Amino acid sequence: MGSHMGVAGVVRVLPFGRRESARPIVVSPAAEPTEVLIRRVRAGENPARDALVRRFLPLLRQWAHGRLPRAARDLHETEDLVQLALMRALKQINSFESEGPGSFLAYLRQILLNQVRDEVRRLMRRPESSEIDPELADTELPSPVEQLVGHERLRAYEAALASLPKRQQGLIVMRLEFGMSYPEIAAEVASSPDAVRVMVARALVQLASALKPLQA
Amino acid sequence: MTGDDKDLERIAAGIADDAALDWRALAKLDPQSTDTGDGLRELSQLANIFRSLQLKPERAASVKAQFRFAGLDVIEKLGQGAHGEVWRAYDPMLDQEVALKLKRVDCDELSHQFLAEARRLAKVRQQNVVSVYGAAAQDGRVGLWTELVRGRSLADVLAEQGPLPAEEVAQIGIELCRGLAAVHRHGLTHGDVKAENVLREVSGRVVLADFGTARELGCGTRFEPISGTRHYLAPEMLDGEPSSAATDQYALGVLLYRLLTGQYPYAADDLDAMRSAELAEARKPLREARPTLSRAFARAIERALAPDPARRHAGVLAMLVAIENSQRPHRLNGLHWALAAAIVAAIAAGGYALRPVAPQLNVDAAFYRDGARGRERLVDGATIELGDRLRLELSSNRRTWLYVLNDDGSIAPTVLFPLPGIQPVNPLGHGVRWQLPGKDGLTELSWQVDAEAERETFVVVASATPLAALEDGIAQWRHAATPDNALVMRGVGRLVPATPEPVRQRGSLDALLGRIGCDSAPTELRCLHFVFPHKNP
Q: What is the ipTM of this complex?
């Protein structure tokens, strides 16, 4: 796998799945592992901090796009929200306890998710233009994810995800929600794409058995 | 690592790879793994949704909308049906393509009914049911938009390749039972289950589509014309009854019959002749048409076709269990008891461990659930659900005659222990932690909850002497079904979760228990009640 890691920088190593060109986001392989960057940020190094932001902002931005209700999906608002979450995470970085490679992304996602919820609460206090048929929604301000998945199912998924070790959460989130390729994840967790694929599959089995089916 | 673990991992890797879900491998999992298998099914769909949100298709800009409806860009007409048109459209808010059904309306009342129905449909989110995203009335038309399923209808599949392999039909049946169960749980019926309305996605997912327009809503009058396809209509519908969970089940039976044989169970030129044929059950038995079909599978389908709704499966979930059981190799069936179990707070003793009121007979009993994550003791108030596998662990300080009954409120309870052909038998020796129901040869058995109910009541009677009154009853009552007669099920109520069950008449079981002395709590006798509420519906 050594040679793999070498080329991973160009990230022409394609994922096993079909879709390659859709997303230009790439974890720069030349960069240091996130774990190292976090240590450097804690030591007060500003360049490391910028590197972390550059690494995660695009991923989080895209993720947030599907998680925010339409009323908040104005580009600037999304941008602000994501930046704010990231800054908050960096500010509290000393309280972040790494549970292995990949757990930082799970941690970021959680902070952003909380931020999104706050935002939704804020929007609900604000009188808005009427929807076509607001009663169709499970909540008053459904995000696209909620609308597509359904409120209860999404909640069940979140609960099951939260029950897994952080490291596994990170793997699942990176692959399923952020759509990172195996080589990208491998670069993030300092492993090989093949090993990542196996780890993701195992994490998914764990998640599946933690998922309390809503319906028989 | 067992073979199943490897299978699960392989299926999960497929989901992670964004490959088509291996439904066939899922269907072959051992019963112990089915919960995890269900979880993987769900994850597969969630993964697809997450991915659809990551993609940024440019079709919004590149494809020209023909017109707009309720904020959707309507792109191309996919079909025209009796009840309206179906269009491919683009929803800019969801950033997804959707299927939009449009129809003209000529009165306000109708569009109100339509929107009300759509709201209820939108609550049903299950992978085997098409997801409804929105509905609106505009410019004299009502529209309902749903996920756009890319696949072929079973009618097309059938026309192209003829009757399907039995395992495939079983898998389709299982998926559709799951889907219909979700529909019924919301107090809805589909009303138009047929091959044309079931889509098979490229991935293999089976999706029940096209309700919402299934029912013709009346304008002004309450008259509701029959809208289903004649061959799929249950006899009671031909008598003018509205569609129900039981008629959906019937239609599913017709569909599965057709997938297996290429024929409808009954063909007739008019509705009267159809009704007579249905009532007379003048159809070719499935095993005549497909001699290789397993008896259990044929029975599971034919039961859904019973002319009397009361003789059909107690609900589509019961049908699901029957189909599943018919597909498993006999060896695995050991774990499956077509019988419902449930427990409760002890009514008499106030706990599940019997208090040693009298030193003569001291019994310690607790129910356990066997699950994917091992054994779990069912504590007071624990909920159980369809498919749960339960065992009773019991020990006593004396030789004990034990009787375990499932009291479903009917006149006769179901006997869970002792069971013919199953070890151990009465009396049970003291000082042993007995695992019940016991073993069929070498196979450990458990009781499985096979029907929905509000709650399950277990009566456990332990006695230092044989109880003639109970032994007599046991000779007549139904016994927990072994795999061979798994289709003989308890008569629980139909799957209508919205309306709470009326309080049942306490029948003769209580009287009997009183006669043998449960009320007076003699020292030679212990009578325990365990009541477990069903989770949901």
A: 0.77
